[in-house]
Design brief:
Chain A is mostly helical. Chain A starts with 17 loop residues before the first helix and ends in a 9-residue tail after the last helix. The first copy, chain A, is built from 9 helices and no strands. Chain A binds a DNA duplex through α3.
DNA sequence: TGGTATCGATACTCAAGGTACCGAAATCAG
DNA sequence: CTGATTTCGGTACCTTGAGTATCGATACCA
């Protein structure tokens, strides 16, 4: 082996900029909305040149997806039994989407992905798949059923956000929790 | 009274162009996707000048909303009992969204509305409200509960469409019908 | 025949995503 | 200390698409 992966490549090292850009992204989206949160403005808010942003992320969509990954972090997946796990996961997603900027950014990339297959691939692979796999593992459910669960929870929350501009109120989140708990509770009861 | 509303104003009359433009909109969206279905291309496909389109609709979003209203038409609201009405309404929405172009166009405007308050207003007032009111009347449910129903059905279908690029398969539509029927079935059973 | 409003066509403005290029700065090897 | 290498900020640029403005031509009515 000629040289093990050199611990530091030659040239000027990159400055650690991810955190600053993520923070600038969320605050800009919160203040101006998704469409007006241009890459120029985000870079300016982060105190960074636009070219620096595009040196790290290939597109605005990819930046937002990474920003969302950072904002969501790993799924808690807490809960004694299966019903509790479904409820806590639903409430966790609802709470994250309600955080300032997160819901707008999520709805925004999702919207862009509708007519951009490349972005749809990024969204599906980098954002949805990790949580889907973790849920399949924790619930012992097949892929299609977990995908339906995600469609329900995320779809409802984003639709409310998109139609009203504000995150879903607690009472409705509780109704959502109740609905998915009832629907996905089988495997416990004898029926079906 | 000087003159009762004249049956025909002076000048060259407008040509009836709505139907042609609606058809061109759906087929263009179906062929090229929402983002590439520009107003120029839609107008060209309709054999009409772009200025003619903008003489009738103030924005691309308003055009799409009118196109969706035309595609959906009045809600059937059939069903012997309440559960059947919920099920048939859900399946009707799913079938409409699965029609070529309709789902893409719906997801597209919805996406645009996320960061465009004016369009959100149009979407809410012109598209959602009529069906919401009809449902409130048919179901005898309060506004908030019908809004939640719409969030669930439309949100789930659009999320699936947005993530996969294809309308939801029948099996999952049936799961959706089952879920909403169970959740909104109270008022019949003694509980709650 | 004249008045009026729409027609198609074209050219335009503006915003935003993304690319290209520049000299300046940071780091390492020698 | 010097040269090689790479990222830095900054700026100019390209492209696409929404929306506006304008113009001669056309269709209708009185």
């Amino acid at each position: 082996m000629a040289s093990h992966t050199s611990p530091r490549p030659p040239g000027r090292p990159r400055t650690g900029v991810h955190e600053v850009v993520f923070a600038a992204t969320l605050s800009t989206v919160e203040k101006l909305g998704y469409a007006r949160a241009t890459v120029d403005r985000i870079a300016a808010a982060a105190g960074v040149a636009k070219s620096t942003v595009y040196r790290r992320w290939p597109s605005k969509g990819a930046l937002i997806v990474d920003c969302l990954l950072d904002a969501f972090g790993p799924a808690p997946l807490e809960g004694a039994d299966r019903a509790e796990l479904l409820a806590s996961t639903t409430r966790w997603i609802a709470a994250k989407i309600a955080e300032p900027g997160v819901g707008d950014a999520f709805a925004g990339v999702f919207s862009d992905a509708v007519s951009d297959p490349d972005l749809r691939e990024i969204l599906s692979t980098r954002l949805q798949d990790p949580y889907r796999l973790a849920l399949q593992d924790a619930l012992g459910e097949p892929e299609e059923r977990v995908l339906f669960f995600i469609d329900v929870v995320v779809g409802v929350l984003l639709h409310r956000m998109g139609m009203t501009g504000a995150p879903m109120a607690d009472a409705d989140v509780s109704a959502l929790v109740e609905m998915v708990s009832a629907h996905f509770a089988d495997g416990l009861d004898p029926a079906r």
